[in-house]
Amino acid sequence: MSLLTDSVATATRSIQDKYPTPIDCAIILGSGLSDLSLDGYQSQCLIEYKDLNGLPIATAPSHKGVINIVSNGNKTIALCAGRHHLYEGYSAQQVTTLSYVLSQVGCKELIITNAAGALNPKFLPGDVMIITDHINHTGHNPVLGQDDTFGVMFPDMSKAYAPDRAKQAWDAANAQGVRCHQGIYIGVLGPSLETSAERRMMRSFGADAVGMSTVLECIAANHSGMQVLGLSAITNLALGNEDQQPDTIEEVLENAAIAGQGMKKILNEILS
Ligand code: HPA
């Protein structure tokens, strides 16, 4: 057994010991969404990441490290507050251990949320972007070196973000009056922010928003048979023009909380 399959099996067993029923869907809550509650869903079980053997510790600020399993009687959703990033020093497989565990407890859908800088000049901090596709600019891949335990060696990524689900999210955003866009997310290693030259390069690649998460989780989800919906909280202007302002974590967290309100409306509409 590889380290990944071992860690995933151990963490899966720890969840199933506490909550044996299959879980339908999971949401990875990024910055600004860690307190998400869903209308009509009641909490069934709270599990701290630190009690899941096999799962790395989540060290990033504002990432709580707890799974709240909620149900509305029809559908069960794992709300996962906290994720693992490459910039914490974790490997691609450590970053995606949680995603693989979620696939093993039955999840058919992974909803990934994140905070991202705006490369597209039409976007404003506090807006939401529905991810239609991504560019993996991290240089890492969780499938590297795996056997076929979780899926095939060359996972198809041609529809990495389920188009039907993205359309539902778009309709929900419009119905709820949420300032929302659709676009391409580019994932970078971090933790230093991009230089202005790098941001202009990413715009020329066709990317609309940049962040330090999501792409590896999306690969793991597609690899292990989960469909993906991705939502970005636009937190700062990252155009890399001459008037580019310095980025601050305070600005990012403040705007993540604003966009989080919009994401909450979208999620409540599509998960009710
Ligand atoms: N760059 C990378 N990651 C981010 C940004 C950014 O501008 N904003 C929020 N996360």
Characterise the protein shown here.
Helix 4 crosses helix 7. The protein has a five-stranded mixed β-barrel with strand order 5-8-7-6-9, surrounded by four helices. With 272 residues, the protein is of the alpha/beta class. It has seven helices and nine strands; from the N terminus they run αββββααββαβαβαβα. Helix content is 31%, strand content 24%. Bound molecules: hypoxanthine (HPA). The site of hypoxanthine has 14 residues, from strand 5, strand 8 and strand 9.
Shape: globular
Most strands sheet = 5 strands, mixed, barrel
Q: Count the strands?
A: 9
**Helix/strand structural class:** alpha/beta
* Distinct ligands: hypoxanthine
CATH-defined fold name: Rossmann fold
Low-confidence sequence ranges: none
Give the helix level as a range of percent: 25-40%
Give the CATH superfamily.
Nucleoside phosphorylase domain
Q: What integer value in Å does the Rg equal?
A: 17 Å
Termini gap: 40 Å
CATH class: Alpha Beta
Mean pLDDT: 95
H-E order: HEEEEHHEEHEHEHEH
The CATH architecture term is 3-Layer(aba) Sandwich
Continuous helix count: 7
Strand percent estimate:
15-25%
Q: Compute the number of structural domains.
A: 1
